[in-house]
Structure formats: structure tokens, C-alpha cells
Amino acid sequence: MKKTALITGISGQDGAYLAKFLLEKNYKVIGTDRRSARSVNWRLRRLGIENKIIYEEMELGEIYEIQRVFGKYKLNEVYNLAAQSFVGTSFSSPLNTANITGLGTLRILETIRSTDPKIKFYQASSSEMFGDVLEKKQKETTPLNPQSPYAIAKVFSHYLTQNYRNSYGMFATSGILFNHESPLRGEEFVTRKIIIGLIKILKKEINYFELGNLYAKRDWGYAKEYVEAMWKMLQMNKPDDYVISTGKTYSIKDFINKATKYLKMNVAWKGKGLKEKLIDLDKNQVIIKINPKYFRPAEVNILIGDSKKAQQKLKWKPNTNLDQLIQIMIDDELKYS
Ligand code: NAP
Ligand code: GDP
Question: For 4-182+221-246+303-320, CATH number?
Fold first, then answer.
């Protein structure tokens, strides 16, 4: 029998890749978004699946909308990907972040518990929960030490997912995904911002762009591969938590160096601190500057995941390294920009 999956946050990066993956597995896919999003389904269009999804409006702040949608379908799996997902914005909009990224999960869990507790539930947890890290490599048992309203809201949702699993025997699973990027990544996130910026410079559309902390390190994987891990978690016999990561970490500066190399740009770093700049040596022009407005009130300096459990139990492993990921992102940006 054809399974039915509901994805919250269908208009986002992971929503698009997951929908494509599930459609290929012959699922009926219900995608929920909020009213504003309908006109911005560019990701689903890019993947050629815009017309294969059943859309429902569901603002995560509104329990009645959630109850209405859950009452309309017989669901097998629910993937909760919707969130105020940007750490930077969580500092300027902490209440909205808590309401959507935190309480939004509770509204869904309560709806599942009270309507059909057999539904399998996936929660999009985040490596940001490890924050100011308490172990060199972060795994499922590493203590959480969140550093932003976003990460704190994700911790709330993560513990609730465990609590509903333990209290009510629900199949509630938490995927602790490290940063994952793609050509479909939001433009405010640093990887896509860098690639868009460099390409605009090459096309002479801008002279320079600005960044914050160049020395933060992230474990960056390819989003298209990470959504498969989400699905695999819900196919297990028992619900559990899994870290999904590459096990390698690079700084923002490393990312820029790799991207400029692939774009064959002749560049060099000059200066220190707020005066650090990237110079295009051919044009003798500054192309990246530092602007403290992009610094975060509290930073997560380094993340590096240990996904051994997922590799053993889910038989999942990452297949795309950072050089390959950068190539995929640049090639696509050149094609569509
Ligand atoms: P994304 O591209 O920012 O997508 C977030 C989605 O949530 C969008 O569809 C957005 O809709 C929706 N949304 C925001 N506020 C909403 C609200 N009030 N009601 C209903 N929907 C709302 O994020 P992503 O990169 O695909 O990530 C998917 C999930 O994984 C998120 O929960 C994120 O926090 C988490 N996560 C991501 C990463 C990563 O590296 N990408 C790592 C760990 C965890 P609009 O289009 O209307 O804004
Ligand atoms: P995050 O790990 O979910 O916060 O993903 P981001 O891509 O937003 O940020 C990754 C890291 O890049 C963080 O440590 C940021 O402080 C750092 N960073 C440096 N400059 C920028 C910038 O201009 N924009 C963003 N988004 N991040 C930046």
C-alpha cells in the first residue's frame, strides 16, 4: 500500500530534497507551508516536483491549523522540518523562534498523541544544540550546551521528542544533523552567501561583500544525502536519536579558499581582525571585507560530528566531501544565476 508522508517546511531546502526522495519511493507527499510561501516554491520547481505534492497551509504557530490538516489525512510518517532556522535571526526574533522552532514541535507532538499515536515522527534536531562543545567530536551522548535562542528552541524540541517516545511509546525520532548545504540552501547561510557573492563579483554585479567570523568551523555535508538518513531513521524497528555528519571540519576561510580556487580566482588574504580582507590580485580590488554586524552575540566556534551510530545502524554514510559540495553549489549557481 502507498504510504503517506507529511513534511512541514516543504518550501525549505530539506523539504524539497526529502519530498523528491519520498516521491521516488512512491509515497504520497503532503507538503505544508505558511501562506506567504506558495509563490516561492522555486526549490520544488528546480527539482521538477512542484506539481506532485499535495499542499496544505499550516502555520506552526496555530494548533487549529495543525489539527485540521492532521484530521484530513491518514498519515504514516511526519517529518517536522519547519522552523525559524537561521541562528542569526534567532537573536533578533527570539520569541518567534521559541514559538515556531520550539513550541511548534510540541503542537505537532500533541496533535499526533491525541489523534493517531501510531504516526512515525521525525524531528529536525541540530548540531547547534552542542553549541560550546563539551566533547571533541559530538555524538548522540555528548552533553548539550546551546548558545543561541535557535539552539535552545531545538534542545526543547529534541527533549520533547525523547519525552513523547518514553512517556507515550510514540515512534518519535530525532535526527541531529550537522550543517548541510546544497544549491538549494537559503541565501542567508554562509556557504551560499559566499558562492553567490563570488559569482556576482566575477560577473561584475558587485565589487565586494561582507562577512562576520571567518574562523568558525563547521562540519558541512550535502543536504541531498542527509534527507535519506531522515527516512532511514523512520524505517528502523525502534525510534532513536542519530547524529548525521561527515566527521570533517573546516573554517569559513577554508570554504572561501576552496571556492575561489575552483573559480580560478587569483586572490590573497591581507590584514588582521576587523581589517582582514580578501584581495583580487588581478584587479587589485578588495572583494571580501569583515563587518561586525555579522558577528553573533554568542558564537559556536567549532562543530565536528561522529556519525558512527548512523553508519552502523542505519547503514548511512556521507559520500560528498567539501570540495565536491562546493563544485556542485558553484556549478548550479552559474547555471541558474
Ligand atoms: P529552511 O530552508 O530554512 O526551511 C525552513 C522551513 O520552515 C521553510 O519551509 C519555512 O517556510 C518553514 N517555516 C518557517 N517558519 C514557519 C512557520 N511559522 N510556520 C510554518 N512553516 C514555517 O531550513 P532547512 O535548511 O531546510 O532545514 C530544515 C530543518 O532542519 C529546519 O528545522 C532546520 O532548523 C533543521 N536543521 C537544518 C540544518 C541545515 O544545515 N540545513 C542542520 C540541522 C538542522 P518559508 O519558506 O515560508 O520561510
Ligand atoms: P549555522 O551554523 O546554522 O549558524 O550556519 P550559518 O551558515 O548561518 O553560519 C555558519 C558560521 O559562519 C557561523 O559561525 C557564523 O558566525 C559564520 N559566519 C561568518 N560570516 C557570516 C555571514 O556573513 N553570514 C552567516 N550566516 N554566517 C557567517
Answer: 3.40.50.720
